[in-house]
Amino acid sequence: MNPEAQxxxxxxxxxxxxxYMMKPNETSFQILEEVxxxxxxxxxxxxxxxxxxxxxxxxxxxxxxxxxxxxLTSISAGVFSRLxxxxxxxxxxxxxxxxxxxxxxxxxxxxxxxxxxxxxxxVDFGYYWFHRMAHEVNIxxxxxxxxxxxxxxxxxxxxxxxxxxxYTSWMFYSPLALFIPPSVYAVHLQFNLLYQFWIHTEVxxxxxxxxxxxxxxxxxxxxxxRNRYCIDKNYAGVLIIWDRIxxxxxxxxxxxxxxxxxxxxxxxxxxxQFHHLVYIWTTFWATPGxxxxxxxxxxxxxxxxxxxxxxLSEEIPEVTGKEVPFSxxxxxxxxxxxxxQFALMLAFYEETFADKAALSQATLLLRVCFIILTLxxxxxxxxxxxKAAVLETFRCLVFLMLYRIGHLKPLIPSLSFxxxxxFSICIAFWGVRSMKQxxxxxxx
Length: 444
Ligand SMILES: [Zn+2]
Ligand SMILES: [Zn+2]
Known about the structure:
Blueprint: H1 11-17, H2 38-41, H3 43-61, H4 68-82, H5 91-103, H6 113-136, H7 138-148, H8 155-159, H9 166-173, H10 182-198, H11 217-223, H12 241-246, H13 269-286, H14 290-298, H15 332-355, H16 361-383, H17 388-405, H18 416-440
């Protein structure tokens, strides 16, 4: 093992890794098992940088960088997307290892800085093409659209990740497995993802000559825009040079309006993740002809019979600058409640990742179900759906049950009893609300 590389990542390294400012000799590992889970270790920095952005935005603009309901939904998608990794190694790594073990042509030295820099370029090049195809191929867009569904643009938007995306992205990295060891690839795959966190902000304007080479907040704002000039532009991960080379670069000019061209108008996590799959399914059956059906899946999201592969730009709704983002009309008190419940769920989520090796499969599965239930219930509350009170009553009951049986451990043992009282009050509150709603529903 390289003596300078450590599985325990120092504070300096943790800060630098958020900006890809790492040296080859401190991040080179002989075997995959030695590679730290950098993304997991970045959680405190995600939170700290989001708070810093909040403060800077208040100072510079006198307002927060986004809205609470939208930010909660983004973090919720981030949590959702990481849940499968509790059960198995990611498909991006599994397929890579398979290709490496069976088809590799050359075995580049894992400890050479040249291999490190080549992998940096290779992973970023693979990301560019994956990302471009994720916008140009409808079935891949079904996953990636989740990331674009926020109508705000701030650091929380970076966390709005898709559950499905990983099932197509692996293909674009597999060719690297013909010559680059998995341990080197696994490092860069994480840094490439982490780098893209800080560029999701409006508090950084222009970075001068750096804008020529690297992906910056300005370039990525264009990528998240639904203005016509922004569509299908700036696919870069770390280096903007790929967009400049392949003709997809666009500089930021008129004010960017963020989000999907057809906003989804919901905070419910399953809709955020899977609504476009349903759209593809219905369009597939409604479109006549075998080749047309095939095109629905593999051509661009804007394609239709008789149109070019990526659809017609004039069909993209024009922005006026007066668009009103979808927002929740629930009271401030209910929003505070949602934040408290979300924070509790996050604490259990973090603990589950930290303890996963020691937990039984049953506990792991029950915890994941509880996390998904919490995300859904908070989505229902923010959307003010008719069944929100019933679902929240059920969720609080499930919490108490899992807590009593021991599948959820007390976060602070001395407050265990207070926890139970709090959730009992929640059950009573939401239970009464459910009854009232049932009593006043028109079917009664
Ligand atoms: Zn994108
Ligand atoms: Zn983004």
